[in-house]
Specification:
Rossmann fold, 7-stranded parallel sheet, Rna Polymerase Sigma Factor, Chain: A, binds NADP nicotinamide-adenine-dinucleotide phosphate, alpha/beta, 4-stranded mixed sheet
Length: 382
Amino acid sequence: MSQKKILLLGSTGSIGTRTLDVVRDFSDAFCICGLSTFGRVDMLKSQIEQFRPRAISVSDVAKQKEARCLAESYDIKITFGENALSELVAICEPDIVVVATVGIAGLKPTLAAIAHGADVALANKEVLVTGGDLVMASARAKGISLRPIDSEHNAVAQCLLGQNPSKVRRIILTASGGPFRHFTQEALQKVTPEQALKHPTWRMGCKITIDSATLMNKGFEVIEGHHLFNMPLEQIDVVIHPQSIIHSFVEYVDGSLIAQLSVADMYLTIQSALMFPERRPNYLAPLEISALSALTFEKPDCERFPCLSYAYEAARAGGTAPVALNAANEVAVRRFLNNEIPFHHIPHIIRKSLDTHKNHQASSLEAIEETDRLTREDAEAL
Ligand SMILES: NC(=O)c1ccc[n+]([C@@H]2O[C@H](COP(=O)([O-])OP(=O)(O)OC[C@H]3O[C@@H](n4cnc5c(N)ncnc54)[C@H](OP(=O)(O)O)[C@@H]3O)[C@@H](O)[C@H]2O)c1
C-alpha cells in the first residue's frame, strides 16, 4: 500500500490524538501532511516534532504570535483566520482529510477538501447536520467517498458491506444513554457540568460528552445517517444500549439483523475509516464475549431527553432547520459548561430557537452561515 497523506483538522482533540496513534502505528500506510488546533499550541508543537507536517493552522487569534514563531522555528507554513483550514487543504494537497474539529467550524474545510478531490474521514458530525445536502451533493459530483469516524456509522458501513442497500428495512443506531439515563426530571435540573462530563463508556471532548448526556448526540447521528446512507428518517431508529458493545444494527427486509461489535475505543473506528474496507491487525485486546454478563436494550425516553425528538423534527422540516438546531445547541452547551444555565435549559433554548426559526433552503454555504449567525444571536439572548 503506498503511503497516504493525511491532513488532520483538530489534531489536538480527542479524535485528533487518537488518529495520530493510528498513523504512528501504521506508518507504512499513512503520513501526516498537515495539522490544526484551535489554540493548544504547546500540544501542536510536540505533534510537529513527531509527525513533521508540511503546514499547520492555529485558529485562535490570541495565539497568532506564538503560532507564527512555532512555524518559523520548524520552517513550515501556517494559516490563520476565517479560511485557515480551507487554505491548509490547498497547501497540503492531502489524499485524505480527517475532519476532527467540532461544531459547524468543520463545514467549510470539508467542502474545501471535497473540492480538492481528497477523501474525507468525517468525525465532525455537525458538518452533515448543518450542510448534509450540500456536502453529499458535492461529494457525489466529485466521486468522493465520505468515511464515517463515528462508531455507529462506521458500524453501519461495515454491516452494509457486500449487501444490497435496497434490501435494508431499518438502521438501528445504539446509544449509551449517557450518565443520566436513570435520572428523573427533577434530578436532571440539578446536574452539574462535572457530572455531565463523566460519560459512562467513552472518553471524548467536552461538547460531544454533553451532547451524549442530552441525547442530542444521537439526534445528530440520525441526521448524519440519513445523509451518509441516503436513508429516509423513518427507517432510522435509536435504541439505548448502555454497554456500548454493539455499535449499531442494520435490519434487512427478510428480518435478518447484522450488527458490529467491538471494544469501545475510537482507535478501531479511526483505523477502519482510514483503511476501509481493508482490515489489519492492531494492538487492541480482543472483545471477550464470554466475559460479557449482559447486553441490554431499551427505548429512549424523549420526555426526559427531548433533544432526540427535536433532531428528528428539524431533519423532517429540512432546509435550514437542522442548522438552527445545531447553532442553538452549540450555544446552549457552551453556556451550560460555563455554568450560565442549568442542564434542563439546553433543550429549552433549542425548542425556542426551532419555534422562532424561519426555514429556508440550505442550498448554499452563505444561507447556512446566515442561519447559524442569526440563531446564535437569538440563543445567546435567551
Ligand atoms: N471523541 C469521540 O470519541 C467522538 C466520537 C464520534 C464523533 N466525534 C465527533 O468528532 C468531533 C471532534 O470531537 P472531539 O471529542 O475530538 O472534540 P475535542 O476533543 O473538543 O477536539 C476538537 C478539536 O478541534 C479543534 N477546534 C475546536 N473548535 C475549533 C474551531 N472553531 N476552529 C478550529 N478548530 C477547532 C480543537 O482545538 P483545541 O484543542 O485547541 O481546542 C481540537 O483540536 C466532534 O464533532 C464530535 O461530535 C467524537
